UniProtKB/TrEMBL annotation:
Organism of this sequence: Streptomyces lutosisoli
Protein name stated in the entry: Helix-turn-helix domain-containing protein
Classification via PROSITE patterns: HTH_CROC1
A Pfam family: HTH_31
SUPFAM superfamilies, alphabetized: lambda repressor-like DNA-binding domains (SSF47413)
Residue span, HTH cro/C1-type domain: 16-70
InterPro entries named among the record's database cross-references: Cro/C1-type_HTH, DUF5753, Lambda_DNA-bd_dom_sf
């Protein structure tokens, strides 16, 4: 899968830091050699803001990078300026959603734990409208439809030529919670069963009988990049979301998801339970 701007930017920062440390230079020493400040070089390495490819070229030469490494990083620096489809939207979107769309445009997998609602990538329009109307109490109908349109657009990643693997562990409470009325909920559960049949979508239900488990604090998603160090954790909060990428944070959530998937019903048993709850059995 081709990498997008955020993945390129994050990869660039990680590689620049690796090359500098391989050379044995501090941030201050490396910056002084190519005429940029310590703060600017730190920003380059921590993946924040834009980069200038001539500076990246100079750094690579100073670090003694191979010709292959130098050309690859210069291309990363140039490609990091490409913008995603959502940047051209007429109406603004929350910054947390902007980052989510950017990351999701580049993922190779997503591991979701959902305790309140069906994950957004697997929602029907009617279900998504009901969720937004309930959670965005100060938004008017136009704003709600704008956010729902974006959610529906996000789902196009499921139809990519090389789609990411979407693995969802859904709490039984989210399956049983009636959102938008019985008709809307039944449509949602039927859609969940249909999409779960895609080869790149895995759906498991975490039953009430599990009792206490590894993620009782709330929903989260591990967004997987082309390499493990480019993974990001997204955690739902009121009014937005938190993004975490420190190794210890990533490891904690990866482990939590492993435990949750082990505790959840298998795929076939999950489908039977969803079918039963939908009232179609």
């Amino acid at each position: 899968m081709a990498t997008g701007p955020t993945t390129r930017r994050r990869q660039l920062g990680a590689d620049l830091r690796r090359l500098r440390e391989r050379k044995g230079l501090t941030l201050e020493e490396a910056g002084a050699r190519v005429g940029i400040s310590k703060a600017t070089l730190s920003r380059y390495e921590t993946k924040e803001g834009s980069v200038k490819w001539p500076a990246v070229d100079a750094l690579c030469r100073e670090y003694g990078a191979s010709e292959e490494e130098r050309l690859a990083l210069v291309e990363l620096a140039k490609g990091a300026k490409i913008q995603g489809w959502w940047r051209s939207l007429a109406d603004p979107i929350p910054e947390s959603m902007n980052l989510m769309l950017t990351l999701e445009d580049e993922v190779v997998r997503e591991d979701h734990y959902a305790c309140m609602y069906i994950p957004g990538l697997l929602q029907t329009r009617a279900y998504a409208e009901s969720v937004h109307q309930a959670s965005e109490m100060r938004c008017n109908d136009r704003e709600v439809q704008h956010m729902v349109d974006i959610r529906m657009k996000r789902q196009e990643l499921l139809q990519r030529e090389e789609p990411p693997h979407i693995w969802c562990v859904i709490d039984e409470a989210a399956i049983r919670r009636t959102v938008g009325g019985r008709e809307v909920m039944n449509e949602q559960l039927r859609h969940l069963l249909t999409v779960s049949e895609l080869p790149h979508v895995t759906v498991q239900v975490l039953p009430f009988s599990t009792g206490a488990h590894a993620a009782a604090v709330g929903s989260f998603a591990v967004l997987g990049g082309p390499t493990p160090e480019l993974d990001v954790v997204y955690v739902d909060i009121i009014g937005g979301g938190l993004f975490m990428e420190k190794p210890r944070e990533l490891e904690r959530y990866r482990l939590a998801f492993q435990y949750l998937s082990a505790q959840a019903l298998d795929v076939e048993s999950s489908a039977r339970l969803i079918h039963h709850i939908s009232g179609e059995s």
